[in-house]
Design brief:
The structure is a single chain. Strands 3, 16, 17, 18, 19, 20, 21, 22 and 23 form a 9-stranded antiparallel sheet that branches. Strands 1, 24, 25, 27, 32, 33, 34 and 36 form an 8-stranded antiparallel sheet that branches. The relative contact order is 0.13. The protein has 3 domains: 167 residues, SPRY domain (Jelly Rolls); 200 residues, Jelly Rolls (Sandwich), CATH 2.60.120; 119 residues, Jelly Rolls. 7% of the residues lie in helices and 39% in strands. The chain has 570 residues and is mainly beta. The protein is flat, with a radius of gyration of 29 Å. The longest helix is centred in the first third of the chain and has 18 residues. The protein contains 4 helices and 36 strands.
């Protein structure tokens, strides 16, 4: 029998405290987990997010390099001269080369789209291409026209011998709500325009016209598998009926910039108009001659440098570029950072905002700011003044200055402070009763595993929050999995779920294997010394199984959380 299983009755507080601590040690050792040393970040500043749509200065993404990692399949009908047994796969490191046709007699090569060749499929059995292996489709682009097939599920965008992850809908929809449920997670676009409801009639084929369809399936969402275009499980009458111009498949998630570039490439190659007028590649020049989202105001691009992601003017003249900014908020603070590849340490770069801001390095109000070599300048949006809608970056009369990136980060700045003692007790040390102090951990619980954080509350009537988060949003919010201690109650999402007294211990446990109840909030029973669950919830569909960090926020001075620990790899 373990000594710790013996309930000691004592009037000696020191002995009771020792028993409590030994119990905690035993629980650590018997949990089969790793007690993680927690390194806390004092939340004096929080990066809310990037405000520029593109921070780099590459002429275009290299995503269509056939040697790009992640490209599994690239079929281009415009390069075909005949229909044979195989179709060449342009993806160098892809699934294999070439791709086998089902029955070449059931397909034909036609010159129908902007004078370029496309492959026509009759819809009869054998009218498809086999990839020869399964692909985890994370990003996919089609240039396709599908012919209506009597309102039956017969024309999937991709097929498989056993699976039906791309099962088409009855009324021309790309995907069926019942048989292709994972489609609800897709980021889906038609001719460059985002489709919010991926199962709606908006996500439908036009039998008369070719469409550019792009699809992204996030890495934290269930895999969707395909091994052909397009034969639905060898069921008679379920082969593709229509025409395919181009098909590009990646087994990795592409960024928005990369997706937009491929959409622009396909639009101008096949002469299909993009429906989103704000798309960065509406103009053919955007594919060949500029940097996504950046526009030349004066001077000219130096194209050889842009291929290496560098902006400079080799002639020693002036060049300035501009980017439109998404909404900036009054009184909020932003950092502009300019990265450079030159050695001109004494030369600064000028930036011009479309409207006046307050530059916090000297307190001046102006549209013009100066960014020293490889550093950051901070500004605040002026209250009751129009917020900036664009930023302009200038190089003046210096052929040696080379800019490689420009960023604008929205910042949250705290006036509060916390102190962390050796036993991981965290306390708000500044005066005031505002949500202006907190800390978050460097360490995390693996989103594909399990673990928990454990802590003691040694006071009451001090408002504080503690929980697990995938993104440290601000000094007030602890989400999506957090406890709010106020008065003597413990709240979750504004509802009281438990009560506490000074000295109570708690755990927030995460277990990725318990579907629907991955998060368990637990309180230690003072009699049995075991942790009992008082509330459970499933993981957020938005967050998914992401790595989870410890996040703490304080309102009241002197508010503290005692002996915080993290146990991982259970």
């Amino acid at each position: 029998m373990s000594l710790l299983n013996i309930v000691l009755k004592s009037s000696c507080p020191e002995l009771d405290d020792l028993l409590e601590r030994l119990t905690v040690v035993e629980q650590y050792l018997t949990s089969n987990g790793i007690v993680s040393t927690i390194t806390f970040k004092n939340k004096e500043e929080i990066n809310v997010g990037e405000r520029l749509k593109n921070t780099s200065l590459y002429q275009y993404p290299d995503i269509l390099n056939t040697r790009t990692s992640g490209m599994q399949l690239w079929l281009d009908a415009s390069e075909l001269t005949t229909i044979g047994a195989f179709w060449n796969n342009k993806a160098f490191f892809g699934i294999g080369n070439p791709t086998r046709m089902g029955d070449s007699s059931k397909m034909s090569l036609e010159e129908t789209l902007d004078g370029k060749k496309v492959v026509s499929y009759t819809g009869v059995d054998g009218s498809y291409h086999s990839f020869g292996t399964d692909i985890d489709v994370r990003t996919c682009f089609w240039v396709v026209r599908r012919i209506k097939k009597n309102n039956i599920h017969s024309n999937p965008l991709l097929g498989h011998g056993d699976k039906y992850d791309f099962h088409s809908g009855v009324n021309e929809q790309y995907f069926d709500e019942t048989h292709a449920p994972h489609a609800v997670h897709f980021r889906l676009k038609k001719n460059g325009k985002l489709i919010v409801d991926t199962l709606s009639t908006e996500a439908s084929f036009d039998p008369q016209n070719f469409q550019i369809i792009s699809m992204v399936n996030r890495s934290d969402k269930p895999a969707v598998i395909a091994n052909n275009f397009s034969n639905d499980r060898n069921i008679p009458g379920r082969c593709f009926d229509g025409q395919l111009a181009e098909l590009i498949i990646f087994d990795k998630v592409l960024s928005d910039i990369d997706v937009e570039f491929v959409e622009g490439y396909l639009s101008h190659k096949w002469n299909i108009e993009l429906e989103d007028t704000d798309h960065p590649h509406v103009s053919p020049d955007s594919i060949n001659n500029t940097v996504p989202y950046w526009k030349v105001v004066s001077g000219t691009w130096h194209h050889d440098s842009l291929k290496d992601g560098i902006l400079h003017d080799s002639s020693g003249g002036n060049i300035s570029i501009k980017q439109e900014i998404e909404t900036l908020l009054p009184n909020e603070i932003y950092d502009i950072h300019i990265e450079r590849a030159d050695q001109e340490t004494d030369v600064a770069v000028n930036v011009n905002m479309s409207h006046e801001v307050k530059w916090l390095d000297d307190g001046s109000g102006s549209i013009k700011g100066v960014v020293p070599y490889n550093t950051t300048v901070r500004f605040q949006v002026v209250e009751n003044e129009p917020p900036p809608t664009s930023i302009k970056v200038e190089i003046n009369n210096n052929s040696k200055v080379k800019i490689t990136a420009v960023s604008m980060i929205h910042k949250k700045i705290a006036n509060g402070r916390v102190t962390v003692s050796k036993d991981n007790t965290i306390e708000k040390s500044n005066e005031g009763d505002k949500w202006d102090a907190g800390a978050s951990s460097i360490e995390y619980i693996n989103g594909q595993g399990k673990g928990y954080v454990q802590f003691q509350i040694n006071q009451i009537n001090k408002d504080l929050k503690i929980g697990l988060t995938d993104f440290d949003k601000d000094f007030v919010t602890v989400e999506p999995y957090g406890l709010f201690f106020t008065g003597t109650s413990v709240q979750i999402d504004g509802n009281t779920k438990e009560y506490y007294v000074s000295g109570d211990w708690f755990r927030i446990r995460y277990d990725s294997t318990i579907t629907g109840n991955e998060i368990q909030y637990q309180k230690k029973n003072s009699q049995t010394l075991t942790y009992e669950t008082f509330f459970t919830e499933g993981i957020s569909t938005i967050v998914g199984k992401q790595d989870l960090y410890l996040d703490i926020s304080f309102k009241d001075m002197g508010g503290k959380i005692n002996e915080v620990s993290m146990i991982t790899s259970l």
